[in-house]
Amino acid sequence: MLKELEETRAPVPRVALAGRMAGNNPFITKLANFAPLSGEDRLLIDDASALQRTIPARTDLMPEGKLSSCFHLVISGFACRYKLLEHGRRHIVGYLVPGDCCDLHPVTMRTMDYSLATLTDCQIAEISADCMLSLAQRPAIADALRWSALVSEAILREWLVNIAGRPADQRVAHLLCELLLRLRAVGMDYGESFYLPLTQQQLAETLALSSVHVSRTFTRLRESGLINLRNKQLIIRDFEELAAFGGFNPNYLHLGSERRHSS
């Protein structure tokens, strides 16, 4: 059941945006990886995502089978897409980190075919379908949104390969490499380190492992000198070595120089 949301910021009137620059909005930062956004593009996106709500951890944003009337953007925290299996077991099919749009197709889908939920406390911005359609009339924003959707699909394909084709320790290594680059793309990393607030159970629901197996796998990676984890701060000691061990190739994230543009 969706808990009552706490509104933290009122919509910014369009007139109030005149003469200022868009702030540190991770959605803008992410889209700018895919297309050259103008100053006006950035202000329009910032305006559209001004209404933000604080949502507690482990809260359903949108259950499967419901009709979504707006787009949800993650401003801070971790959320996920998931499917429920028999006996109520959950399988996480996608992580949503700052800058991610949780549901890119509410206009075309009649009902949700997956569920959305927060994994940690989150700041979520809500954009109406009409507002998003208006943004998509601008060529650079439309291009960036298309690339964002394509990358989301590419991540899902890579997760399928990861779960079906790799042993547990390589699955974990691959996922950690991916998270570092996705968070780095929106300025949420600290060099070779990032905040990993996920529980062992949440990771288990992602990687098709038991929570005990996840714990043992992290221990092996740590004892091998590849990672360290203290107070939920994940440190990758040698990214290239961890990537090689996990079979990680970042090409599916499309964050290379061929898609980067200066603003």
Explain what the structure shows.
This protein has 263 residues and is α+β, with helices and mostly antiparallel strands. It has two domains: 6-148, Jelly Rolls (Sandwich), CATH 2.60.120.10; 152-259, Arc Repressor Mutant, subunit A, CATH 1.10.10. It has eight helices and eleven strands. The chain has helices at residues 26-31, 39-48, 129-135, 139-165, 168-184, 200-207, 211-223, 239-246, and strands at 6-9, 52-55, 60-62, 70-76, 79-84, 90-96, 115-118, 122-128, 193-195, 227-230, 233-236. The strands form three sheets. The chain has a four-stranded antiparallel sheet with strand order 1-2-8-4. Helix 5 (168-184) crosses helix 7 (211-223), helix 5 packs across helix 8 and helix 6 crosses helix 7. It is globular. The termini are far apart.
Keywords:
alpha+beta, four-stranded antiparallel beta sheet, globular, single chain, Jelly Rolls, 263 residues, Arc Repressor Mutant, subunit A
Number of helical segments? 8
At the fourth level of CATH, the homologous superfamily of the largest domain is Jelly Rolls
Radius of gyration in whole Å, from Cα?
18 Å
CATH topology of the largest domain: Jelly Rolls
- Give the low-pLDDT segments: 1-22, 257-263
Strand order of the largest sheet: 1-2-8-4
What gross morphology would you assign?
globular
| Proportion of residues in extended strands | 15-25%
- The oligomerization state is single chain
Architecture (CATH level 2) name of the largest domain:
Sandwich
| CATH class term of the largest domain | Mainly Beta
Q: How many domains comprise the coordinates?
A: 2
Quote the distance from N terminus to C terminus: 42 Å
Tell me how many strands there are.
11
Q: In percent, how helical is the residue content?
A: 25-40%
Average pLDDT level? 86
- Biggest beta sheet attributes: 4 strands, antiparallel
Order of helices and strands: EHHEEEEEEEHHHEHHEEH
Q: Name the structural class.
A: alpha+beta
